[in-house]
TrEMBL record, chain A:
<dbReference type="GO" id="GO:0005524">
    <property type="term" value="F:ATP binding"/>
</dbReference>
<keyword id="KW-0547">Nucleotide-binding</keyword>
<feature type="domain" description="ABC transporter">
    <location>
        <begin position="8"/>
        <end position="234"/>
    </location>
</feature>
<dbReference type="InterPro" id="IPR017911">
    <property type="entry name" value="MacB-like_ATP-bd"/>
</dbReference>
<dbReference type="InterPro" id="IPR017871">
    <property type="entry name" value="ABC_transporter-like_CS"/>
</dbReference>
<dbReference type="GO" id="GO:0016887">
    <property type="term" value="F:ATP hydrolysis activity"/>
</dbReference>
<dbReference type="InterPro" id="IPR003439">
    <property type="entry name" value="ABC_transporter-like_ATP-bd"/>
</dbReference>
<dbReference type="InterPro" id="IPR015854">
    <property type="entry name" value="ABC_transpr_LolD-like"/>
</dbReference>
<protein>
    <submittedName>
        <fullName>Putative ABC transport system ATP-binding protein</fullName>
    </submittedName>
</protein>
Automatic annotation (TrEMBL), chain B:
<feature type="transmembrane region" description="Helical">
    <location>
        <begin position="757"/>
        <end position="778"/>
    </location>
</feature>
<dbReference type="InterPro" id="IPR038766">
    <property type="entry name" value="Membrane_comp_ABC_pdt"/>
</dbReference>
<keyword id="KW-0812">Transmembrane</keyword>
<feature type="transmembrane region" description="Helical">
    <location>
        <begin position="420"/>
        <end position="441"/>
    </location>
</feature>
<dbReference type="Pfam" id="PF02687">
    <property type="entry name" value="FtsX"/>
</dbReference>
<feature type="transmembrane region" description="Helical">
    <location>
        <begin position="21"/>
        <end position="42"/>
    </location>
</feature>
<feature type="transmembrane region" description="Helical">
    <location>
        <begin position="395"/>
        <end position="414"/>
    </location>
</feature>
<dbReference type="GO" id="GO:0005886">
    <property type="term" value="C:plasma membrane"/>
</dbReference>
<keyword id="KW-1003">Cell membrane</keyword>
Length: 236, 830
């Protein structure tokens, strides 16, 4: 199935934190490879290490051991500034709690990554994306004036704004009701297809996980790709 | 709700953990501390000045009788009963006999108590060191002006005869506290005891005698005594308090005003800080209130809770502020304690804490309360979803209430309508300019689209936070304006003082130069390289009529015009002296013989205008001349100054005149004076060098005090800026964290933030400084009497400094965002 080199590759990743002197291993020996354009879901219980793994893969932090390469570059050995540059140009994020800036309008929120990536016409591009997620009428509204679903749609518009190669989403529907969650995940999948973006997401939502091409499960810091991988082969 | 103090205290402690509360409380503490420090210090300074001024007039009050009748003993008894100390001096001129010669002298006969304030400076022999003593000679002895030794050719220990009485010369009289500036004593002075006066037999009915009475005691007692005394006084009685006298130079009055200004600015600044922080607090409390409402608490109940909380803060703020103010003002008062001959104890003036109390209450209840009061209207629905447009609600009304309150406060504090109006005008101008500029700026910024470039990101940031940016800019500009006002006023005050008493300020006066000696005096001094100032003729006379009416009737009774009670020095001159300036009418034309020029303040008090006719009595002559011009006079210039000036060849010319002049003599050349008095025994030499030194010393001390006040106010300004900056701290940090996850690298983030704040600070600084110039111009014009000019160093320094300080604030704000990995940031944000 591997037609190109994997866009995301994790080798022997182990992550420990030291909260108050005692070392706590959150992730152990993680191995994972995702191809360009694929969609992958990571499921697991609360506290199993999903968010931590996502953050490490996105280059928000560096693992204690092991390597993460993104789009052919080993980000686990880069310094913070290089990783920042990487994030600005190739990575998009969607967070469970939206993370919109409350003092900015919807439009300005979407413009943020465009401005960072020195896009020539951030306002224009942002407006287009907001129209695409169905919020063309709410450009000047601040997050406080938007519902949860609407806020998450703004966040998705923001995530896709800089046309990232890969998008990480941490429980994008976690704070939403079923129907809204459904609409938001539809949007995610659609944009993923339209823009050819690779999608990696953490979710509790079984339905959403099932719509992804690959499913991983994480338990007590160990990652596996059980029955689901088999399912994929059945599909083929 | 518990209302016991312990409960309050616990609550306040819990509140303290909230950042906004900490800022409100800190602002309050700084407000109270600044205002209280300034008020305490001002009261101490006032006390010092009054004491020092009292020392210059030998008592707190003087009562002079010029009718040749002693002041009734009953009046002094009344004063003594009221706990007021009294002293007497009898003044008269007579011939003394000694060493085989006669000489006209001016006699001061003092009671034991004299002087009540200040000290007499004397020497036991011409070679002995100068001594400060607190009483004159005992009965049977006399101290004489050193010139008399030469004039009479006598020695210390010889006797001189005053009328029928022989007195032993036991000392040389160098200076009496109240004789410092007096130029009327032309004959050499001697000081004797007043119990010896009757035995001289000099004082007969009809002889010219002045009875000088001195009073010293508590202000309140003195005022009450004056109330009692007033109806008993006749026109020939002159009551003088320090306030009316020219005893201390105007400089010190300006210093007092500066303190008032500083205090008022501190009030304004602190109120702004409290307002900003409490508004922020109210905004943050909305969720809590909504939650309380959901849990079933009623609006009024919630409001009461907040009211109790505010009260607790007020108490804490007051206590904290006052605890801070006491050591501060004590430290400041150490600075000025050197002003006095005898050190003065620190005096805790509890009344001075009034303004601080008022500030705390007004700041909290006019600034902090309105937004907090509106909290009870927060809908419970907010728990689920915030309502749009809540933030701007009622801000205008709050602003208006606050504005009125704070200006009321400043007015109460400074009692200077002009000050309040100047500040108000400056602020209005500032806000107007801000509104226009802000709008233009935002229009311009709108066109900037972002980029990885820090500058553009900074500009985008400014636009993106336009609401907060404009609000912050307004507060910064206001703060900086207030601080700049004080800096500007301070430097012009110091310049003033510096230029007022330059190195070569005349420190000696020559009085009583006979007309035919004028040339000789000039030659004598020029030969010895002493540059002589202008020589003025001087005729002594009284102002007796205005437009044909006796002055007593022409001038309303409640106006007390001291100039009417004594003989004025009249002169004539061709060209206006350079420290005078015409404010109405014209200077005399060449060859003009009629007319008189009058000093502006006197003209105002007399209600005299150009064209009015003034009648004078000079000896047995009377003259009447129309007012040709009104002049301002710089009284503290240490040069001969005159209330009335006539044209040369005018009404005075034929009257007997003596001449007066001043010159600067280096202290090392004092011996010139001895030669001079030997050559011109009838000319009086007035040595003012020690007075000038003293004034310089006082100005130096007061300058230090002013610098300290300035530092305090600048510190208050910094607190305001910190409060304002930290109001958006959380939003900024959140944004910084998010920008980092979105790929902004640290340097970019740091640079753009610093630039954004620098821009904000620079603009605010520029606006503030310009508004300050306007306000200072208004203030200067009315209060400090200086000319307007741009102050380039301040104009440049302020914007630059505020840009630097703010960008550092911005950097400091970002610090927690820069130190940790974006991952941790995200966890914190969740
Ligand atoms: N910096 C840290 N210090 C201490 N403990 C940490 C740190 N980061 C993560 N952990 C711990 O590691 C574990 C995994 O955290 P993580 O947030 O990755 O779980 P999660 O699978 O995303 O859970 P949830 O589904 O609840 O979001 C948790 O027990 C968490 O408390
Ligand atoms: Mg998680």
């Amino acid at each position: 199935m591997a037609t190109t080199h994997p866009i995301l590759e994790v080798r022997q990743l182990t992550h420990r934190v030291n909260p108050g002197n005692e070392s706590l291993t959150i992730l152990r020996d993680i191995e994972l490879a995702i191809e360009t354009g694929e969609s992958a879901a990571i499921v697991g219980r609360s506290g199993s290490g999903k968010t931590t793994l996502l953050g490490l893969m996105a280059g928000l932090d560096t693992p204690t051991e092991g390597a993460v390469s993104l789009d052919g570059e080993v980000i686990s050995q880069m310094d913070e500034d290089d990783r920042a540059r990487m994030r600005a140009h190739r990575v998009g994020f969607v967070f469970q709690s939206f993370q919109l800036l409350p003092s900015l309008t919807a439009l300005e929120n979407v413009m943020l990554p465009l401005e960072l990536a020195s896009h020539p016409s951030p306002a224009h591009q942002a407006r287009e994306l907001l129209e695409r997620v169905g919020l063309g009428e709410r450009l000047q509204h601040t997050p406080r004036q938007l519902s949860g679903g609407e806020q998450q749609r703004v966040a998705i518009a923001r995530a896709f704004a800089a046309q990232p190669r890969i998008l990480f989403a941490d429980e994008p529907t976690g704070n939403l009701d079923n129907d809204t969650g459904q609409a938001v995940s539809d949007l995610l999948m659609a944009l993923n297809r339209e823009q050819g973006t690779t999608l990696v997401m953490v979710t509790h939502d079984e339905q959403l996980a099932e719509r992804c091409q690959r499913r991983f499960s994480i338990e007590a810091g160990r990652l596996s790709e059980p029955a689901l991988a088999a399912g994929m082969e059945v599909d083929e | 709700m518990r209302s016991a103090p312990a409960g309050w205290f616990r609550k306040t402690l819990r509140d303290w953990r909230e950042r906004e509360v900490r800022i409100v409380l800190s602002a309050l503490v700084v407000a109270v501390a600044t205002v209280a420090t300034i008020a305490l210090f001002a009261s101490q300074l006032q006390h010092t000045l009054v004491t020092s001024a009292s020392a210059f007039m030998a008592g707190d009050r003087q009562l002079e009788a010029e009718n040749g009748q002693p002041v009734p003993q009953a009046w002094r008894d009344e004063a003594n009963q009221r706990g007021i100390a009294t002293a007497r001096v009898v003044e008269f001129s007579t011939m003394v006999y000694g060493g085989g010669r006669f000489q006209l002298v001016s006699v001061n006969a003092a009671s034991d108590e004299y002087p009540l304030r200040g000290q007499i400076e004397m020497q036991a022999t011409p070679e002995a060191p100068r001594r400060q003593v607190s009483a004159g000679p005992p009965p049977g002895e006399v101290w004489i002006n050193p010139r008399l030794l030469r004039l009479l050719e006598i020695q210390i220990g010889d006797a001189i005869e005053v009328g029928n009485r022989a007195l032993t010369v036991t000392g040389l009289l160098l200076r009496q506290p109240d004789g410092g500036f007096a130029m009327s004593a032309l004959a050499p002075r001697i000081l004797m005891h007043d119990t010896d006066v009757p035995s001289t037999g000099v004082i007969q009915d009809g002889s010219r005698v002045e009875y000088e009475n001195f009073f010293a005691g508590e202000e309140a007692a003195l005022d009450a005594f004056y109330e009692w005394l007033r109806p008993r006084l006749s026109p020939s009685h002159e009551w003088a308090s320090i306030r009316d006298g020219q005893t201390l130079s105007d400089s010190l009055r300006k210093a007092e005003r500066f303190l008032l200004l500083g205090g008022s600015l501190a009030v304004l600044l602190s109120s702004v800080a409290v307002a900003v922080a409490s508004r922020q607090y109210a905004l943050r409390q909305r969720d809590t209130v909504a939650l309380l409402k959901t849990l079933g608490q009623a609006g009024p109940h919630i409001a009461r809770g907040y009211l109790a909380r505010l009260t607790a803060w007020a108490v804490c703020g007051l206590i904290g502020g006052i605890l801070l103010a006491i050591p501060l003002s004590w430290g400041l008062s150490l600075l000025i304690s050197r002003l006095l001959d005898q050190p003065m104890a620190y005096r805790m003036d509890w009344l001075a804490l009034g303004p601080a109390l008022a500030t705390a209450l007004v700041a909290l209840f006019a600034f902090a309360y309105p937004p907090i009061r509106r909290l009870r209207h927060v809908p419970a629905m907010r728990v689920l979803r915030s309502q749009p447009g809540e933030t701007g609600q009622g801000a205008l009304r709050d602003g208006l209430v606050a504005l009125i309150a704070v200006f009321g406060l400043v007015w109460l504090y400074a009692r200077e309508l002009e000050l309040v109006l100047a500040l108000l005008g400056g602020l209005a101008a500032l806000l107007g300019v801000l509104a226009v500029m802000g709008w233009c700026l935002m229009m311009a910024l709108r066109r900037v689209s972002g980029g990885g470039n820090a500058w553009r990101l900074a500009l985008v940031g400014l636009y993106r936070h336009r609401r907060a940016s404009l609000a912050q800019m307004s507060v910064f500009a206001m703060t900086l304006m207030l601080a700049a006002i004080l800096v500007l006023v301070r430097s012009s005050l110091l310049d003033d003082w510096q230029s007022q008493l330059p190195e070569d300020t005349p420190n000696h006066f020559l009085i009583n130069i006979a007309p035919d000696a004028v040339e000789d005096v000039r030659d004598f001094l020029t030969e010895r390289d002493v540059s002589l100032g202008r020589l003025y003729p001087m005729v002594r006379g009284r102002l007796t009529e205005i437009n044909g009416q006796p002055v007593r009737q022409a001038v309303s009774k409640d106006e007390e015009v001291n100039a009417l009670n004594r003989e004025l020095n009249l002169t004539w001159m061709e060209a206006l002296s350079d420290n005078n300036a015409i404010v109405a009418g014209d200077w005399f034309d060449a060859g003009q013989r009629r007319g008189v020029s009058i000093e502006a303040e006197l003209a105002e008090r007399l209600g005299v205008d150009v064209g009015d006719r003034l009648g004078f009595t000079i000896g047995s002559e009377t003259i009447a001349e129309p007012v040709k011009s009104i002049r301002t006079v710089q009284w503290d210039s240490m040069r001969p100054n005159f209330y009335m000036v006539f044209p040369p060849e005018g009404a005075l010319t034929d009257l007997p005149a003596t001449w007066i002049t001043s010159f600067y003599l280096d202290p090392s050349r004092k011996s010139v004076l001895n030669d001079f008095t030997a050559s011109f025994p009838t000319v009086s030499v007035l040595e003012l060098d020690h007075i000038i030194d003293r004034i310089r010393d006082i100005v130096g001390q007061v300058t230090q005090a002013i610098e300290a006040i300035l530092a305090l106010v600048l510190a208050a300004a910094l607190v305001v800026m910190a409060a304002v900056v930290s109001a958006t701290l959380q939003d900024r940090q959140r944004e910084g964290a998010l920008l980092r996850t979105l790929g902004a690298h640290q340097r970019l983030l740091t640079r753009s933030t610093m630039m954004e704040f620098a821009l904000l600070g620079g603009l605010a600084g520029l606006l503030g400084v310009m508004a300050a110039e306007v306000a200072v111009w208004a203030l200067q014009y009315r209060m400090f009497e200086g000319a307007f000019r741009w102050h380039w160093p301040v104009l440049i320094a302020f914007p630059v400094l505020s840009a630097v300080v703010l960008s550092l604030f911005g950097r400091w704000q970002l610090r927690p965002v820069l130190q940790v990995s974006p991952m941790l940031l995200l966890r914190r944000l969740e």
